[in-house]
Automatic annotation (TrEMBL):
Keywords: Cell membrane, Membrane, Transmembrane, Transmembrane helix, Transport. GO terms for cellular component: plasma membrane. This is ECF transporter S component. It comes from Candidatus Eisenbergiella merdigallinarum. It is a multi-pass membrane protein. GO terms for molecular function: riboflavin transmembrane transporter activity.
């Protein structure tokens, strides 16, 4: 009975930590977006009704893309490549950083209904936080001055931060938490990495040789596609948003 209570307690703490990170990301995005809009003299509300409608549309698209995950040859099976950040980044460029964070959170909620977690929700937490590290700086830089140059700078900065933060976050928190909640010894997780790459002997090797390349690949592809198609989509997105007023 005590073991069951301990498991429930650990999961509850994890859920509260997850929600705390969601609130933190939202508050950071809201404060930055509000400050930039105030400096520009933009009186539009951060969360206008038309934005909320479009956030729902982009969240659904992102959730479907999150389910369509592809394995990568250089990482264990619990890591995969998906393009769910693409709708979030496009939505953040169109409607602001707060919209990007909300798309990322709603995406996770919808995805859980479409496909239950196979990683004790650690994978969902990782996806949300690391995605926000890409989407937030990229959309803030673009919000300051909406030019193609700033879009490129923003996505490059976001991708690099995503790779660095994602690598450290996996090593310090996510992988140990996954081992704890999933009931899998840490050595077994490292061994899965060693089976793919003999150079992996510890958690540092696992994140440097698996997580970092994955985040660079994912961030780079999502950023490239966004930069290539956003300007063409922008008039359509603005027209769609106006119809929802």
């Amino acid at each position: 009975m005590s073991a069951v209570m301990q498991t429930v307690s650990e999961n509850l703490v994890f859920v509260l930590q997850f929600l705390g990170l969601v609130v933190l990301m939202f508050l950071i995005a809201y404060a930055v977006e509000k400050a930039v809009k105030r400096k520009r003299g933009d009186s539009e509300r951060v969360l206008a009704t038309r934005k909320i409608v479009m956030i729902g549309v982009f969240s659904a698209m992102a959730a479907v893309l999150m389910v369509l995950e592809f394995p990568v040859p250089f990482a264990p099976s619990f890591y995969g490549l998906d393009f769910s950040e693409l709708p979030a980044l496009i939505g953040a460029f169109a409607y602001g950083p707060v919209a990007g964070v909300m798309i990322e959170f709603c995406k996770i909620v919808i995805k859980i209904f479409l496909k239950p977690s196979s990683t004790a929700f650690v994978g969902e937490l990782a996806n949300f936080v690391i995605a926000c590290v890409l989407v937030l700086p990229a959309s803030v830089i673009y919000l300051v001055k909406k030019t193609r140059r700033n879009a490129i700078i923003g996505t490059v900065v976001g991708t690099l931060l995503m790779a660095v933060f994602g690598t450290a976050f996996n090593a310090v928190y996510l992988i140990p938490k996954f081992a704890q909640l999933y009931g899998m010894p840490l050595d077994s997780i490292i061994a899965m990495g060693t089976a793919i790459n003999p150079s992996i002997h510890d958690i540092t090797g696992l994140v440097v040789l698996c997580v970092a390349p994955l985040n660079l690949l994912k961030g780079g592809l999502v950023s490239l596609i966004t930069v290539l198609i956003y300007k063409k989509l922008s008039p359509v997105l603005k027209a769609a948003a106006k119809k929802e007023k």
